[in-house]
Recover the amino acids of this structure.
């Protein structure tokens, strides 16, 4: 089993994946607190360093690249210093930014987290969630079609206005017509726009929202199966459940519950990006849904052990897969 998993990961280097969605820049202002402000009862953070990383759909592309694949990142940035900085970071990570569209009427989405003593004190967002105008949407679709011959496509939806229904339907229909895999990391309430995708990876809260359930813990797997598999026509739904791992729904098979593989959780930021990246790559490399879900679960377990928006490398994934295989061999179910 360990050799099969390693062979699967080795095939990632031959995979090309389009990521289309909401591109962001994640910025961390890291410092220390020595005193409380005399102006208001809030801590004064003395910033000691700034960390900048790709976020949103850009973090999905970063995960794909670290796993050895070739990502094509399709999205929108603003004509501003933050957009130019994100392009620089992507180039440093060997991710070509040529498929990004610059829009003059919207800023680059930036999430700035203020961190002291290892704790996030506040987050400041600079963004717009307005839908793309017709001209920008047309340019984005042109950019997508230039790279649409890739093995798979990921829709990375953060509800910032890029993945509206017409765009999702165009991308999914094009992928289905050409027999290509398409995996969705969803957001919002309009799940009909994802109809016909290969697989979807909502977290428990997102699944509850899709089903109209107020309390996520009350999500019925039978109801989820009917909605995602029957109504939307998906081949699989992988619902992530934090420390409870994930559950995999496939047509004609009972729900498969996978326990969380992480021993220590430092930060869950970006874990969903890792899940959708690893899942899409594994499927592109020929894995079954179950094999891909197990691999994605292991990858997420590595990432949540890191601070901030993080990615996983090929070596880290192979090491984690080997450790899990050895653990199962010593303690068979």
């Amino acid at each position: 089993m360990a050799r099969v998993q390693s062979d699967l990961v080795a095939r990632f280097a031959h995979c090309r994946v389009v990521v289309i969605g909401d591109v962001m820049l994640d910025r961390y202002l890291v410092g220390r607190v020595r005193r409380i402000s005399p102006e208001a009862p809030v801590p004064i953070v003395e910033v000691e360093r700034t960390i900048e990383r790709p976020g949103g759909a850009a973090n999905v592309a970063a995960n794909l690249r670290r796993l050895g694949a070739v990502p094509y990142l399709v999205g929108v940035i603003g004509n501003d210093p933050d957009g130019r900085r994100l392009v620089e970071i992507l180039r440093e990570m060997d991710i070509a930014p040529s498929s990004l569209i610059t829009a003059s009427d919207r800023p680059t989405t930036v999430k700035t987290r203020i961190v002291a003593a290892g704790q996030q004190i506040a987050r400041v967002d600079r963004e717009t969630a307005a839908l793309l105008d017709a001209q920008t949407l047309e340019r984005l679709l042109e950019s997508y079609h230039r790279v649409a011959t890739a093995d798979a496509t990921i829709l990375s939806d953060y509800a910032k206005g890029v993945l509206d229904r017409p765009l999702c339907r165009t991308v999914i229909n094009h992928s289905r017509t050409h027999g290509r895999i398409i995996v969705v990391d969803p957001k919002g309430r309009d799940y009909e726009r994802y109809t016909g995708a290969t697989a979807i990876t909502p977290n428990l809260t997102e699944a509850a929202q899709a089903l109209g359930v107020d309390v996520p813990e009350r999500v019925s797997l039978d109801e989820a199966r009917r909605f995602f598999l029957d109504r939307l026509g998906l081949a699989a739904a992988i619902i992530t459940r934090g420390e409870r791992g994930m559950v995999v729904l496939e047509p004609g098979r009972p729900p498969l519950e996978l326990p969380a593989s992480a021993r220590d959780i430092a930060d869950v930021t970006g874990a969903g990006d890792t899940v959708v990246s690893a899942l899409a790559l594994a499927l592109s490399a020929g894995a079954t849904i179950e094999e891909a879900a197990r691999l994605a679960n292991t990858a997420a377990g590595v990432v949540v052990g890191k601070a901030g928006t993080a990615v996983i490398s090929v070596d880290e994934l192979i090491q984690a897969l080997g450790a899990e295989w050895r653990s199962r061999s010593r303690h068979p179910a």
